[in-house]
Every structure is written in structure tokens, then in C-alpha cells.
Amino acid sequence: MSTPKKPDKDPEKDKDEKKEPADPKPTQKKTSAAKKKGKSRVPEFVTCGLPKPDEGPSTSSASPRRPLMGKYKPRVSSPPRRPPPPPAPFTPSSSSSPEKQPIDYPAIEDLPLPPIPDKPASPLSLPDQRRRYEKPPVEKGGDNDSSSPGEACALPPEQYKQIAEKARRSRQKRDSTRSHARGKDEGSTSSPDLPKRKPEKEEKPKSRRSRDTRGRREAIRATMMRKRKEMEHALAETLTGLGCFDPYSNATASNYIIRRSTGIVYDSEITKHRCEWDERHPEEPQRVTTIMHKCYERGLLDKCVRISNFLRTDLYDRILTKHSAEHYEKLKTLCQTSNLSTLEREAAQYNSIYFNRFTFDAACRSLSSVLNLVLAIGKHEVMNGMAIVRPPGHHAMYNEFNGYCFFNNVAIAAEASIKDGLSKRVLIVDIDVHHGQGTQQMFYDRKDVLYFSVHRYEHGCFWPNLPHGNFNYIGKGEGLGYNINVPLNATNLRDDDYLAIVFSLLLPVAYEFNPDLVILSAGYDAVMGCPEGKMQVTPGFYSHLVALLHGLARGKMAVVLEGGYFIPTLTEAACLTLKTLLGGPCPALDPIRGVHPTVIETIRNVRRTLYGKWNCFSICEFVVPKAGVAKDENDIYKIQYFGVPEKAPFLTRNCYPENSIPEHNYYVRMNKALRERYRASLTLPFTYIYDEKMLKHKPQKGDVERPEKPDRLTTILETFKDFGVDKRLVRTKIVKRDWANYSPHIPRYMAAINAALLQTTDLYVNEHTNEAVDTAVCGILTILDGVMTGTTRGGVALIRPPGHHAEANTPLGFCFVNNIGVAATYLSIKYNMQRILIVDFDIQHGNGTQNMFYSNPHVLYISIHRDEKVGEDNIFYPTCPHSFKNDGHGAGRGLNINIPFKRDVMGDTEYISAFQNIVLPAAYAFAPQVVLVSAGFGAGIYEEKSGGYNVNPETFGHLILMLKPLAEGRVILILEGGFNVITTSLCMTICTKALLGDPIIMPKNVYKTFSESAIRTIRSVMDHLKKHFNIFHINTKLPHTAVVVKKVDIFTEETYSKTLTRTLDPDKVDDNAYVENEMRILNSSNH
């Protein structure tokens, strides 16, 4: 068993001792065996199929090599390099050498993406846009590369050699002809080894005028080429400065971003660390062994990639980035003591700490495991992963052991990822029930690390009893606003309270921060049954948290075990976390019934403190008191700290809470009952349906051009093939059936749809329309049968004509049968589904779907659409009422939610904010059993015919990612509108990739700009929904004035006559030293 050593060595040691190799930088790739033999190991993807430098076609030495003309311009091969000398033979050393580290080869799908072409795309040219994602673009390189920016060369080696050989022969023939014309015999041109041409002075002299003309011509040509390049570069810079870039760049780059493997790291040596003087201590080895055993039983470990758990040779240097050298030496020295009395006496000097002779080794191995996982994620060896480690780390401070923690695993790993150039912005989400004061202190003045902690606080009366866990500690200097504490001042809080925090605080800030790495400090001591937390969070919540964070950082997430001390629920929560990392469905949660009043107050206080520092909180309404004086409780927010920090010596035995036997048995039964909900399969496939019969529905001969045309489906299928999505889905054959009994339309409605139907600007028919409509409906029902019988998890319906405008008795807007209306009715009647969610994000309101379920208590309809009015009349299609006040009727009151955006051009920020603040809270309060998505993309970019909004394809993918945790993953996408075939095809493809679990690129500049009209709409909808859903009561007006509250131990009659609050200066409220001083002055006063 080796331990990390300092880099400096004793000079008296044997000089022949083998020096330990330094840990390579993560950004440098190790040399392969092939390269040691003198061969360059370059993936074929990098060379685009071109021959290697030493394998290029031979060229004549008689004439200089000229670039090929026309479309194909291969790279100029560099001269062959001299092979390196053979490596020295390996000589085994008697000294102990560190374990061999794994060679890090780049995965093909993880190679850097090509730059965006300089020339912006035209949204109206279908062939040019389609060419962007037909072949992977390749970044041009080399000083001799004469091709223009944005061009790609991706030829197979055989084709390249043929073209190069043909060009070589053409040059030789041309040179031979010119030589013959000059009367010079330069030898046979058929020989591959031609002699060098004679010097120019030996040639027949030319006239001075001829030489001058030729020189001027060459100078003019060179000048023109130089000017052309300068103009191209200047134009590219100008367009980039104006924001003119390829609008589909993120969407097309998604072709190369797919879901990768999940890593797991565990070291059995960490189980030797235990409290030897207290066998009942809660931080015990069984915490990790039980997790690993349960994950193995459920087949989760077999689906993971095992990350090497070797003890890192650079561990000492990594530790010194966040701890002092004395801190390291102190732990190392203490663990060399075997006397238990001495160890316990030393442990009493630290809060909640114990030692044994294996503690130092376990702490080093735990830290090494976390580092190995985080760096493997940063190097794209795995997409995400979980570290099952102990001792935990988030309480460890710069020079102090604390709270079972010795080295701060998460902080050191985050720092390593940034210093090694693997990350620029790291999000640390700490959900342990205890505040991670150690992690907070280490990044308190940094803006490249966002620390977000949800913890039990009780105004400072809960461990660690420090004021630093309060909501007003938000960082300092550059890090102001990048430290977010969400203190919980009550116990027995549930999923409802934690989900409200996620929707209103975590997701908006995380999307605006846009990290490139997420580290989850996964403390499971807030889960039900844990005696330290006294909370009632179910194990399933952690699965939903991981799934909702999956949209960040392209899925790069490291989950690091921290606390959690009730073994049954700890194990269940950890297994569900790993299952979700693997892409498994989230379990069903109970509907959100309400949020605890103290949590509502905390959310309000956090929003108020961060207001103006994060644009995502612009949706909050700010209260300005009259005459600048706070007059009631709604105008103030209180900063309260009533705790007393503990001091040494600390207790070392029986210093932790425990469950009584009845409590223990109750939570064991609860966990067993909940486990029945968590049995959803991890391996169910996704399906899609398509039939060429739907292409036959087209305008009649001589009719005007219609935007709803067959190209919409064929282009989506082509994009599916280009992105490889079709091979990852199961195509299901459409089963024809009689669906009249499940139709929400009037009787014999289909008989009225025939070729004699009146043609209008938004409706056309031909002799195949009936067959296309019937095929579309039957296809959707086929998908539903597979999902409800458990053979598939979800599906995609590539259908036309669309359906959400069709009324019960009238076809409208290219829609004949309301496809999604038939699907919801089918689920309700045949499968007795009681809660069906329909989400419609087409820019045009789904009037037909709304009217069909307006009074239905089993269907929640949510629509995000454009709404324009002149007076009381709607002027944007459709013209039926669809404001937020149209919220349902009778038993369906409150189950019809309209989010009507106004005239402003809405984009990614507005749609993501509407989802996080309205759609997700309402959906989780409804707790659907199935989710149907009316996937209309009329709000997408370059959809001028639909409405002129500017939502990018990747944004629609993020909307699907946020819906995916619902209904155990039973999500069905049903194509509706969207008439720019390129935008629609990319949007549908990326939504499908999101359904498959692929990481989705974050849209550019989310929350950087926010439409004032959208802010007003979101506020109005949230306020209106308060009377229907209790969760929307978290949206309160933000107070203006901050006060500190006096600490009172015993209330008496005299207490009420004293001053209990002190008003703070609004300009200094972010200064923690000022607030602490004002609090001391107030507590020391007797008035």
C-alpha cells in the first residue's frame, strides 16, 4: 500500500533509485506503442481519410508541385521525418514504482468540433443548408494550405491517390509541352525521377519587354489574391461582430455529440477507515459497501465503465491547491499513531472527527478516486460518473479537519479541472443536509466556480452552527453572486419543497451560468429516515435532480458521495442516482401539494439578495416602499442568526442523533413500499413511426403553393439518417384499426373529409387525404400501445397532416383530425389514464386541443404561443380566445394553461424561462402518467411564414430534456407545425436526441437578454395560477429593506418593549463584515 509523497527527495537516498514519473497533464495525450516504433498514430477522423505525410503520392522533382485546381485541393504533404531512435529496453527496478496509468486515447466522437464557416448560411437555400450536415466538416491546417476558409476536404485515401496521380501526370505533360515549345530537351517526362531543371540563365534569353510583362502580371495576380484574402477576413470579422454567424452551427454540431458511457469509481481500501472507539458511529464502512452491493444486484455496475482507482502520484500537489502543507503533514503524522487514547484525544480538538491508522490512506484514496473521475470526464473518457467514496470532504477547510472530512474532494477536483484546462466554469451543487462551509470558503471570491447549497440551517441553530450558511453570504469581490445558500429553517420538508427550490432558483441560475462541468456533492442525509437530517425527501427526488441537471455542461456531471447515514434509503437513493446517470427513467413522484411557508420565505430572500446580479430573476417583481420607509412585513426581509458556534474540546462518543426502534422500522417499511415505484426498466427502446402514404396528401394540380407539404417529413427522415438517429430508434409498423370510438370529433366526422371539401388558404384536400389522416392517427395509437404495454419507453410520430387546430366539428389550419386529441382520449378510455399532460409549444395556439379538453379533469393542457390583439380581437392565427385567463371550465378549471407571448420577437431565454417557472411547476403539481408533446416548431429560427420568432433548435431539445423526468419517461413527440423544412428537421432531430438521452448544446446567450413583454407575461401567468396550484405561491414580490433580528434567549414582557430589529444600509447589505457588525451591536444593546 503506497502513500503519496512529496516531490522533494532526500539527497542521501540511493542515486540508482528509479525516479517516480510525474503525473502528465490531462491535456497531453500519452504516446502509444505505435508511435514508439516511429509511426504516427492519428485517428483517421483527424486526417479525413488523407494519406499520412510519409505515404503521400510521389511527385516529379523536375517541376515544383502545384496545387490542384477545382473542387478538390488536398493538403501539401510535409517531408518525411527521420524516425526516432528505438526506445531503450525496459529494466525492472527493485524500488516500488507507482501503478501504471491508463493511456488516454481520444475518442472519435470527442474530437474538437470544426469552426463555424465564415460565410453565413442563407435560410432560403435548402441544398446549401443541407450540405452542412451531410458530411462532417474538417478543420483545415498547415502553412501550405491554400484552400479558402470554410471549405472541407474529406476524401477516402484511394480517391485522393487517384486524383493526385492524375494531377501529377497532367503537370508532367504540361511541363513537357512547354519545354518542347521553348526548344529545350529536359529528358523524358515519363520517368518518376526527373532531373532538376537547369538554371534560368542557361535558357534562351527573352526580351526585356516579355520579362517585364510577365513580372507585372504575376505581381498583379499576387496582389489580387492578397487583397481577396484580406477582404474575406475583414468581412468575416465584420459579420461576426454584427452577430451574423451560422444560425444552425449548434444544431449541426449536435451530430457529433451523443450519449457516452457512465463511469464508476470505488476503492475497497477505504473501508479500513472506521471509528475504533465507537462501533455505533454513523460514518461507517457499511455506507459504501451496501451501495456497491445493491448496484451490483440490480445490474448497474455491469453497464458502467470502471474508472481506475490508483493512488495518484501528483496527489500532494493537488492537495496543496486547497489545503496547507501543515494540514497534510498533520493527518499523515496522526495516522502513524496506533494508540487509541492518543487518537481520541487528538480527535477531540476537531468538530465531529475520528482517526485510525488507516484514515490518511483512506482520505488519499478517496480524493484520488474523485480526481480520477472528474479528470476522466473532462478528457471525455466518460460522459458522467459517480464516486462511491468515504470519508466525505465538503466540510474540510484550508487548515482544519471538520465533520468527518479531511480533504475537500470536490473543491480539489474542481480546481484541478480548471487548472488543467478541462473546464472554465464549474457548478458545484451541494445537497447535503449540512452546509458545506469548507467548499464555500475555497471559492468565495471566485466567479469561475458557482457554489449552490441547499441545507438545513434553522437560523444557525443546526450544525455546523455558523452564520456563513445564511442566504446573505453570496461571495465577495469578483465572486459576488457566485455563492448561493438556500437555508432551510424547518424540518420534515418534502420533495415539494426541494423541487420548488430547484425550479425557482437552481435551474434558472445554472442555465445562465452555463457551466462546462457539474459536480454534485451528493449528501443523502436529507432523505427520509436519516436521523441527522430529519427531512422527508424520497429517494426518487435525487433521480429527478440528476435528470434536470443533465441539460447542463453537455451532460458532463460527476456525482461524489458525501453524507447519508440511514443505510436503507441511502442505498436506494444512490442506486437511483446511478441509474439516472446511465440514462434510466426517473421514478414517479407524488404531485406537489404545497410548499412550506419557511421555504417560500427563503426563496423570496434568496431571490431578493441575488436580484440585479442574475438576469434570470428579472421575472420577480420588486417592491419599492412609499417614501423610502418600510411600513409592513412585505417590505422587509430579515437576516437572522441565533446559533452559537461550538468550541473545543468536542465530544467524540455518542454525539450524533439516532432513530428509535419504531422510527427505524417505519422508515424501512416506507422505503420498501417506495421501491415498488422504482422498477422501471433501464433498457426499453424508443420507437418511431412513418409511412409514405402520408406523403400523398398534397395540393391539387394547379393549386397555389402551400407551406404544409410532403417535404417536411422527407427532410426530417434525411436528417435522422445524417445524424444516425434512425439506427438508434425502433421503427414500428403502423397497425390499422378503427379508432372511431376514441375520436373526440362528432360522429361521422371523417365522412365529411373528401375531395369535394372547400379549398381555403389554410386547408386543402386530394383523393389521398383520407388515407393520410387515417395512417397518421393509427401510427400514434401504435406508439401508445407499445408504451403502455411496456415494450417501449417513448416514441416519435413523424406524421402529417398536423392536428392541433382541428375542432370537434371543423378542420382548420391544415389540420383535419386532432391527432393529439385522439391520443389523449385513447389513453383515457383504453388504458384508464387519469392524468395526461399535453405540452404544445407551436407558435400558433392549439385551439382545437384546448376546446376538446377545456372541462376535462384528466388532461392538463399547456400552450406557449404568440398572441396579438387589436383591442379585444386576436389578429394572429387562430383568432379564438387563448389568453392566460382562459384556464378551463367546470371540473377542468385550472387545467388549461396559456402562456401568450406578445409581439416582441421571443427567443431561447423566453421559452426556457417559461418552462422553468411555469411548465415544470405545473407539470410536477399535476404528476402526469403520460406526456404528449405537440411538437410544432413555428417559433423556430427562419420561420417567417409562421410568426417570426427566433428559437434555436437546441432550445427545443432542452425543453424535451426538462419534460423527460416526468411520467417515468413515457414521453411521445407528435409532429405539428413548422414550415421551414431545415429548421423543422433539425428541431425534430434534436428533440429526438434529447429523448434518447444525448447531451444537448446550450443555446447561446441564455438569459443575457430578456424581453420586457415576456417578463410581464410570465408574471401574469404565475400570479393567475396561484388560485389553482399552491406551488405558484413561491412567487411573491421582493422586499426592499433588509433588517437584522436580535437574538433573544427567553421572551418576557420586557422583550416586547425592546428594539428587536436594526435596519441595514441597502448599499452595504452584501458586505458580510458590515452585517455581522450590525448584528453584534444589536445583540449587545439593552434597549
TrEMBL record:
Give me the reactions it catalyses.
N(6)-acetyl-L-lysyl-[histone] + H2O = L-lysyl-[histone] + acetate
Region feature (Disordered): 1-219
Task: Give the Basic and acidic residues compositional bias ranges.
Answer: 1-23, 128-143, 163-187, 194-219
Q: Please name the InterPro entries in this protein's record.
A: HDACs, His_deacetylse_dom, His_deacetylse_dom_sf, Ureohydrolase_dom_sf
Q: According to the UniProt entry, which residue ranges have a biased composition of type Pro residues? A: 80-90
An annotated Gene Ontology molecular function: histone deacetylase activity, hydrolytic mechanism
Kindly state one GO CC term assigned in the UniProt record: histone deacetylase complex
Histone deacetylase domain mapped to chain residues: 281-580, 707-995
GO biological process annotation, one example: epigenetic regulation of gene expression
Q: Which SUPFAM superfamilies does this entry report, sorted A to Z?
A: Arginase/deacetylase
User: Record's PANTHER family?
Assistant: HISTONE DEACETYLASE 6, ISOFORM G, HISTONE DEACETYLASE HDAC1-RELATED
What is the protein name given in its UniProt record? Histone deacetylase domain-containing protein
> Which species expresses this protein natively?
Zophobas morio
Q: What is the lineage of its organism?
A: Eukaryota, Metazoa, Ecdysozoa, Arthropoda, Hexapoda
